[in-house]
Amino acid sequence: MLVGNRSYRGARTERCGGFTLVEILVVVAIIAILIALLLPAVQAARRTARLTKCLNNLHQIGVAMELYTNTDGHFPWTYHEGTTESWIVTLSPYLENTDQVRLCPDDPMGLARVTANVVGLRGTSYVINEYVAYDTTDGNSCLNINFMKSTHTLPVLFEGADYGRTVGDDHVHTSTWYAPVDIQQGTVLDVMLAEINPTQHVTCANYLYADGHAETVSYETFLSWVQADIAAGTNFAMPQK
User: Is residue 127 part of a domain?
Assistant: First the structure.
């Protein structure tokens, strides 16, 4: 069809090669959804990696502690026994790198713990059971592994509380956990949580046992220990001699 000097061969819509605003918004929305789906998985993988690193720390410490106790059976003492060094420093000759294993990667107070205090004491994320490292006043301590009836079920290292204890504390007062007044008032768990953190890794924590093995224990299992102790008048952290 001719109109004047112009020729039309049907109408044709011209379009540039870029994206429309709607298309861009759709792509952005899809990317946001994918990130939202992947982020929890990435975070879970990172938590698992930190949990595994912490468990490996305790495994290495367990090997060092086994080598140490092979000498005369004694566990390393806490700084209450007259030394200005933490128990982990006592084990340092048996560890490849003490500073690499003394801190849990999930411990928010890690940097503060490795900063020496006024007497030169440096802390650790892991606290030793005073029953194996200090002569307790209740007479139930057992400082020598050779006199223990059961080593597989006795935890000797706990993950220390993030807050509520001084950064240099290297032991936990297991002999005072089940004081009659706390049982009566229902505050046993509060006393424990001021010193240890059974949910350091969200739903669980790592423990080192007297026989040298380390394992992850859920918070539910930890609570069952406490409840059983209160009912039976026992203490899962007390050595059997």
Answer: yes
